[in-house]
Recover the amino acids of this structure.
């Protein structure tokens, strides 16, 4: 009885918040959960209809629920839109409708996760958007198809992240040509790229390249305008830096595998590292990471008496690593590397 009286006398402080605060809170949960709040009371019935950020997961969607959601949504603009698609036996007919809905509502931050699909073809209407400022497309190891007959035009795009196993030079060039104000580019395992030419991306300042698959070793990076570079790669898949003349800050992480030390000779690793350092002569801040790989190779270079590339400015060098029990393995490999 006492508990019942407390409940009846309790004040609903949350419902007294302004709509803008309630909508901000609802942005942190998937849209289907946000919609269920409309059952709480008359006060909550239409709160979700104007939340600035939408998050959809195809696992929980049906054509009927999508139609109802988009019909009841009344906000004129959408700040953020996230769509996740997990494995489905057939094509999902309303996916294009959701993307078109986001574009038509002037979305600024768009995230598309198709990582479970083998082929992903960008819809034609998606090739043109003047509102998107930040775009993240993750299709895992799948093949992203950019329509050849479409001229890309993402005139407001400032930050682009692409994660895809199959992206051709032609598709990448098409994308870059339509992003005149691009400032930040992230690429993850785009293994079909042979030449990443960023010479025409005049405003690009930050490049983040992650290449942990073994068949990305032949990619050449031409990025004369970037100021910051982060390169994460395996030993055998490090891209070749052709032109990074404006670079002032770089973080290089090469993942170390003991087994691969016996696959490649020491000269191979020494050449890779020294060529990379030679292209970083203008850097003011340089960070080495990746479980001791650089430390091992640079120590080897020092022992052999091989001259280091000369840097043009005073360099701040940081070794971002950790000491673990596996470090002792280096002692066993050292003699092999010197041969």
């Amino acid at each position: 009885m006492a508990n019942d009286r407390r409940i009846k006398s309790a004040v609903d402080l949350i419902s007294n918040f302004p709509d803008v605060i309630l909508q901000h809170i609802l942005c942190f949960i998937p849209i289907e959960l946000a919609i269920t709040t409309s059952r709480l009371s008359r006060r909550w019935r239409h709160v979700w209809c104007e939340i600035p950020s939408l998050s959809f997961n195809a696992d929980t969607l049906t054509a009927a629920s999508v139609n109802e959601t988009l019909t009841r949504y009344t906000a004129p603009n959408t700040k953020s839109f996230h769509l996740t698609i997990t494995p489905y036996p057939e094509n999902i007919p309303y996916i294009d409708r959701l993307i078109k809905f986001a574009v038509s509502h002037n979305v600024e931050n768009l995230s598309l996760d198709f990582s479970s699909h083998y082929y992903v073809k960008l819809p034609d209407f998606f090739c043109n958007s003047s509102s998107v400022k930040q775009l993240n497309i993750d299709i895992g190891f799948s093949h992203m198809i950019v329509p050849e007959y479409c001229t890309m035009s993402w005139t407001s795009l400032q930050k682009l992240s692409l994660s895809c196993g199959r992206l051709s030079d032609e598709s990448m060039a098409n994308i870059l040509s339509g992003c005149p104000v691009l400032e930040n580019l992230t690429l993850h395992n785009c293994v079909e790229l042979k030449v990443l030419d960023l010479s025409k991306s005049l405003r690009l300042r930050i490049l983040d390249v992650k290449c942990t698959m073994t068949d990305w070793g032949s990619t050449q990076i031409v990025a004369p305008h970037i100021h910051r570079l982060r390169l994460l790669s395996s030993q055998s898949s490090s891209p070749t830096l052709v032109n990074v003349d404006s670079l002032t800050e770089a973080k290089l992480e090469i993942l170390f595998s003991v087994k691969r030390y016996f696959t490649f000779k020491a000269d191979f690793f020494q050449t890779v590292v020294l060529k990379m350092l030679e292209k970083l002569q203008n850097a003011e801040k340089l960070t080495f990471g990746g479980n001791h790989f650089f430390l091992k190779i640079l120590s080897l270079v020092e022992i052999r008496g091989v001259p280091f590339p000369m840097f043009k400015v005073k360099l701040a060098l940081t070794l971002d690593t950790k000491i673990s029990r596996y470090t002792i393995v280096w002692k066993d490999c050292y003699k092999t590397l010197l041969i």
